[in-house]
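--- STAGE predict ---
source: upstream dedup step, 1 unique chain passed
mode: sequence only
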Amino acid sequence: MVPIFIRRPTARRGATGTPVATASILPSTRSRFHPVDYSGGVVSNATRGSQNVTVTAPQPASAHDWIITIVCADQPGLVHAVTGGIVEAQGNIEESQQFHSPDTGRFFMRLRVSTDADEARMRAAMQPVIDRYDLDLGLREADRPTRTLVLVSKAPHCLQDLLFRQSAGQVNIEIPRVFGNHPDLADIAGFYGVPFTSLAIRSPEDKHAFEQRVMEYVEEHDIELVVLARYMQILSPELCDFLAGRAINIHHSFLPGFKGANPYLQAHRRGVKLIGATAHFVTKDLDEGPIIEQNVVRVDHSKTPAQLRAIGQDVESRTLRQAVTWFAERRILRDGQRTIIFQ
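--- STAGE serialize ---
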């Protein structure tokens, strides 16, 4: 390809003898500007008079964008070793967050790394670090959606919010199916093109069958996260153990003050001034799993039970959505009964 140059205006004389300014656009090898080679994204020099101008071409995007999480006992030289492994894979660190827990002596780290290295090459580069420091390393492509199974009962607000955010690309999850112990929310799932499985629970045998189907589906369809979106059943210890670290529940923050049915009516009668919600990991201890996110909204005496319920449902949806988003982005790390959140 012949380089194209724009010459400075030159003067010529028209028919009346008046100077006329013209500009010529033509191939030239005599121009004072020399072509810049952008091939392969290299850096070349262009000469302008006696000055050299360095021009950097845009670099091609890396083939992979990795999220790396690290949990281990804190030790000297750990960060240096981790970054050395990334350099070995020719990676560039885009984000880096770390935390030392003085209570447990554990070290937590989350990095976002761009590189052309595939998963096998990344793991090979990090393996010496894993062996030396005995660390738990998580590796995941940043744009890969988290496959999520949602469990529901009758309340629609949390499911509706998650399905909408998924369809809008605002939460990086993929919901292949919704399970419910009532058929009430099948139409909402269907509106978003998500299959709905309804399995009634009227006896302990029904509950066992429901949970067995959940465990089978998780294994058969590579489910990474199970969300209890106002699912009003207590999970068995067996299912809690099976889903350890990958199941999130949402509940109103009135617990344990307002247990049972109609918590917002109870709150209205007690004249509460704050309405809130808590998202937490599911454990065998009911509503006592590690807390991921909490939100509150101030209210006053003028709010009716229906208004309190509407406010509370909005808070629940926002809180659950935030917890799911952080999980999908691998921002949550466990430190015993606490969570480390790299926001």
